[in-house]
Amino acid sequence: MDGIAKKVEIAFDSETYEERIILSEDDTPSSGTPAQPAPRAGLLTAGEWNDLHNWNRHWVDLLADGETDQYQKTYGFYPRQRYTVMLTNENDFPIADAVAQLKSTDGKILWEARTDNTGKAELWPALFNPEKETAKLRAEIWVQGNKHEISTLLPAVEGFNHLKINAECNAPKNVDIVWAVDATGSMGDEIEYLKTELLDVIGRAKSRNPELSYRMGTVFYRDKGDEYITKSSGLSPDIPNTVEFIQKQFAGGGGDYPEAVHSALEEAVFSQKWSENAVARICFLVLDASPHQTPEVNASLQKSIREAARLGIRIVPIAASGIQKDTEFLMKFFGLATNGSYVFLTDHSGIGGKHLEPTTDEYKVEPLNSLLVRLITEYTSVETCEGKSEIRFDNDPQQQPGPVMQALYYPNPAVDQFTLELPFVVQSVTIYDSEGKAVRKLENPVEGPNTVLINGLAAGFYTIRILNNGLMQSGKLMVVKG
């Protein structure tokens, strides 16, 4: 670990209610080797960037500028042609975990995915082919054994392909999460902190969504020639057992830069027993090095990503210190292909080595544990049968346990305005666009219904963040054109 040890605190600006990272050097010993703060949850800082949500305003520009060309060729991933299907019932309740198949005119399945908790599925006709698929494409959607079809598809740059069907208001309650973690020696500067963060996230995610059935598993991996290539614990509702397994792991081995990323994905995707029905399946892939760059490894990565999409597993990479640009883009490709996102540690914490500056526009720095809890909540929350979306509040650890409090907002998607029902008075509500810029803010909104005007906002995804007693809770809002 290099540099001066820093004391790290997460605080909020009293005027803007924005998260601030406070760094000080007063914990540096007077002599000897500078020490890092003892591992505890909330120290690591991170950002998130979702290229799917920034497709037209960011990713398409990167493609046009040729910035991704060399990385596409290196790994054989070509995330250019994209079609998004949105499936709801006739009352606009999203239908989760439905099978969506992209087919050519001769009936060949080009891509298969599952709809997420918002009813969306991402379909890619030529993800591993540099040549564009020119055949006429259609989508087949399967719900409870019944086939539905979208015969004419709009590309993602033109919008979603919305299909309404006659179906009950119902969503699966199962949630599967696998933590795949690079445990080679180069992760030594951050792995103990990461373990602490993961353990905190596991507890908070379960307490925030008590009605869901969680299973968790792990895959720790190194490389060929090390003590092991992969070491795993299977998906299980026995969360304490998963916690105990994580606590026993440590960094070691490695020595060269590339690691057995492909083996970790093979273990996570093909060897874990994922639920047949689930509202969310997530694989958090924590790493600081690229896979080996060989045709065999590329073929393995492609096979795993195709299968992850087919099973509805979101791959969410978490890039640690030492990651290089080619790995960053490969991780972005993983997120795009599986309806996931891209998370990266930042230098704000002062922990670990130098972190690569991400290829993004503006982004928001968050404590890593809070960011991961936010993502899990966003991936597992579904609208009520009355068409209302939820934002849940963590119980105050200083108070006696009580019922989980929640805010409701509707309609979602929204056009010119939406209603936000608050269970109590909060400090502020801020709406951020996909680039992390605040576009609307309500100071001290009242308990009960609040009307929030969003006319003039561009169509796309926005984040609603509610500040209450120094804690930030969030939810996703989709804005569409009238």
Strands of the widest sheet, in order across it, are: 13-12-11-14-15-16-3-17
Number of contiguous helices: 8
Q: Over the alpha carbons, how many angstroms does the gyration radius reach?
A: 22 Å
Q: Tell me the total number of β-strands.
A: 25
Sequence stretches where pLDDT stays below 50 over 5 or more residues: 1-34
CATH superfamily of the largest domain: von Willebrand factor, type A domain
* Outline type: globular
Q: Kindly report the average pLDDT value.
A: 87
Helix fraction by DSSP (H/I, runs of at least 4): 10-25%
Q: Bin the strand percentage.
A: 25-35%
Q: How does the major sheet shape up?
A: 8 strands, mixed
How many structural domains in the coordinates?
4
CATH architecture of the largest domain: 3-Layer(aba) Sandwich
The N- to C-terminal Cα distance equals 53 Å
CATH class of the largest domain, anyone? Answer: Alpha Beta
Task: State the secondary-structure class.
Answer: alpha+beta
Q: From the 3D structure, determine the CATH topology of the largest domain.
A: Rossmann fold
Annotate the secondary structure layout.
Elements: E1 7-12, E2 19-24, E3 45-49, H1 55-65, H2 69-75, E4 83-89, E5 99-103, E6 109-114, E7 120-123, E8 138-143, E9 146-150, E10 161-165, E11 174-182, H3 191-208, E12 213-221, E13 230-236, H4 239-247, H5 261-271, E14 280-287, H6 295-311, E15 313-319, H7 325-337, E16 342-345, E17 366-367, H8 368-380, E18 389-392, E19 406-410, E20 417-422, E21 428-432, E22 438-443, E23 448-453, E24 460-468, E25 471-479
Helix pairs in contact: 3-8, 5-6
